[in-house]
């Protein structure tokens, strides 16, 4: 009788610990979340809310994905959490919106970057749980793998259990940019003219391949792949943009030219020739002027149609995009080579956009400033200068416009005050970086101290800011409006 009672007690304990399922999906709460993450080697968790439209759209696909994995007898489990019922869990895991998905592999979270359809969910989680690199058993499979993709990376190891092969697998774990594989077939090694232990990047352009050298490590190998996977001259488009600008602090030369121009092939050939000599120092990119999608890039750099074709060098940092302009628009090998070398030698000054000074810039109560006259006007020793930095498309700027006119009218009788505005989308300053619109700054007379205003955008507030010497409504250091 005692044994029966013990057995029943154990069975009750197991049942109590078993996680509830809804249409094959584990239902998690704060009480069982950590246990589920620990007990299941592979676990995808969706945080959802009953009122969320995107969650409702994902729901049926999520169920289909769970069913498909079950039919495959997969070790991957799908789970869900009702965020409206588990607020503490949402706070703990810093869930910012719905739906949010987390994937756990051996208890470690991985950002979910897959799609929202059942097949996309299944494909993504299977890739994350399978071998990091595909195994190619024969020379024919190696050939097919190379033919199917623009860029591939293959490690050739006679022993796939070797330490070197394991390091390669670890280095490409969760790497999704280009397909990776391993091969131990001797015929494949011979046919592809590689040595055992080599990692080779195959590509359908330029020199066709690149061989990795040195010890295999995650950062070094991925750096090698990103370096050699891009073409000597990359065509700018929607697909390539992210790869082109992925590396901050990398220098890019951009050639703006129409692909339908009669001399396009000639100019492209000499551009590529120059690119060969500056490879890995400057990335060379060509931007087709005929593509409507490229107009934003052209406008952002302040380029005019009458100056085309032309070139620019840009360098990206975390906060800024720094521009450099050649001293000529001539597209010749000599001119391009000189521009690139002078840039590397730090002989090319940073280029700042500026409109021409309007003839009537000072005829109205609100003076119009551009890059070319800003310093002369704003850094006056005998005037306090209030400047509004604006963008034509900015809604808040449009709301401020009549108030700014009112401020200028109100202060127009004060000889030591000047009210101005500058369109910061087409005018830039070396000393002032405008990161939000509108931005209001006071440049004090005598010492030209710069003070940013962050108070109410009213006549009373702005004039009080001026009267207080920039103390009332003064912005905190490094203030940025969202």
UniProtKB/TrEMBL annotation:
Q: Which residues form the signal peptide?
A: 1-16
Name its GO BP terms in alphabetical order: protein folding; response to endoplasmic reticulum stress
What region holds the Thioredoxin domain?
8-130, 342-471
Q: Which domain of life is it from?
A: Eukaryota
Q: Which cysteines are joined by disulfide bonds?
A: 52-55, 394-397
Identify the EC number(s): 5.3.4.1
Going by the record, the broad EC class of this enzyme is isomerase
Catalytic reactions on record: Catalyzes the rearrangement of -S-S- bonds in proteins
Q: Which GO terms describe its cellular component?
A: endoplasmic reticulum lumen
Q: What compartments host this protein?
A: Endoplasmic reticulum lumen
Q: Which family does it belong to?
A: Belongs to the protein disulfide isomerase family.
**Protein name as it appears in the record:** Protein disulfide-isomerase
Organism source for this protein?
A: Tigriopus californicus (Marine copepod)
